[in-house]
# Entry
Amino acid sequence: MNKILLTFIIIASSILGKAQKAYLAEVGSLVPMENFMPDKPCKIVVNLNLTINEFGMIDIAKTEDMYMWTWSPYEFPLGNPKANGDVDPMWKNSNPLLKMTKEAEGIYSYILTPTEFYEVKSDKVYANDIKLLVKPKDGGGFGAPDKKTEDLIIEIDPPVTVVKLSCFPEGAGPKKDTILMSDADPFSIIYDHKAETKSSLDTVNDFYLFPKAKGTDGIEYKLAANAKQVVNFPELRMVRDANDVFTGTMIPEKIFIMPAGVKVLEMTFQIVKPYLVNSDDSVDEILKYTYKDSNCD
# Structure
């Protein structure tokens, strides 16, 4: 992607859509997430305290062991050593192999290597995500109330190959008070599609930004939960001009809703096509932008 133009442009004013609440907590997550690789071990972590608790799982977990029940990226049939249940009916007899580890009250985990556990290639993990629920060994049903969480989806973004680091320059003037100074200042990212060398993006005519921010409190903030959901946020859609150049504009403090006193420390931006499935649907380069008053070597 040596020829692709990806730049930051600060602009004087802009009217953006109403910012959405930052996506801060997840019922199900992966550790690690930022450097996740489908062929490397990871830990699935489920917080029952954040589930809808329709079936009383928080209380059930106080006295019973919890088991993972998973069907994506692949579900094993009855008789397979990795099937969700080891005896028919499977729902009432969870497989001991899928017993989860209690990390804390209401917090359960399961360690696996996705490609090995599900016996699929990496592209299937990226395309289908990891889908599961948590239940006790006997999930009820068959005339008795079900015992389970809601269906949980851990959405997995495809990898990117390059991260570029940029820093806001020091402001000009005696007070160094140019619009380059604040996360309240609007700016644009410009992407020259004509210079794209990735063949899978040759005919794409619609792109979105997937921005993430790190606050001065050390917490990550996002508008869209992941790159697959950017289409739900019109303010992340880039505007295409007659020269096939795309521009995305935003005001960081309005996109990333943070607690009082917390400012944006650094941001990363990925450019993706709508309904991203795998790395073919995204620009290979992620931009990382760090404000001048933070560590930016």
Q: What stands out?
A: The CA atoms of residues 166 and 293 lie 13 Å apart. The radius of gyration is 22 Å. Residues 1-25, 169-180 have pLDDT under 50 and may be disordered.
